[in-house]
Amino acid sequence: MTGIDEGSGGSAEHADVAVARIVGAQTLERGLDLLERAAREPMSMLDLIRQSGINKGVVYRLVSVLTARNYLAMTGDGRLRGGATLLQLGHVTSAFTDIVAVAQPHLEALAQRTGLSAFLARRDGDHSIHLSRVAGSERIAVTSQPGTRRLLPETGLGKTLMSDDDP
């Protein structure tokens, strides 16, 4: 049987987002839920069963397929984590994703909500390269244009890009 059922997505991360669920795709939805959970945080099979609320036998079967296809992998201590196929798909997908186009509506909403300029940048070694800017409504505005290259410590944006660095 096929059809569309208006509901919420299967994973906890998507629970608050209304999405169309395809009737008969429950197994796929459960498998994706398991994949997302283990990719976010490596976890034991038991933790995956507990957190997902999915029947133990179903979890074992789905994890077997996901592991065989390298979507999931085992860590040295026996926990499940995202596998090589996820990395490969992410790399392929990123080549076709226009990050500026994806981020632009979010930058506009942020600038509108805060009244401040909103920026998108990427890190390039010890520098940031500004990719997009949406001006805020405040009288004082930052005028850094897309393509601007700045040392990371020179700007708040650069300092944010450094926040994951080791001390």
The number of distinct β-strands equals 7
Radius of gyration: 21 Å
Biggest sheet features: 3 strands, antiparallel
Order of helices and strands: EEHHHEEHHEEEH
What level of helicity do the residues show?
40-55%
What is the secondary structure topology, with strand pairs?
Blueprint: E1 4-8, E2 18-22, H1 26-40, H2 45-52, H3 56-68, E3 72-74, E4 80-82, H4 84-95, H5 99-114, E5 118-124, E6 127-134, E7 149-151, H6 156-161
Antiparallel strand pairs: 1-2, 3-4, 5-6, 6-7
Helix pairs in contact: 1-3
Task: Describe the fold and architecture.
The chain is α+β, with helices and mostly antiparallel strands. It has two domains: about 5-90, Winged helix-like DNA-binding domain superfamily/Winged helix DNA-binding domain (Arc Repressor Mutant, subunit A, Orthogonal Bundle); about 100-160, no CATH class. It has six helices and seven strands. A three-stranded antiparallel beta sheet has the order 5-6-7. A two-stranded antiparallel sheet has the order 1-2. Strand 5 and strand 6 form a beta hairpin. Helix 1 packs across helix 3. The protein is elongated and about 60 Å long. It starts with a strand and ends in a 6-residue tail after the last helix.
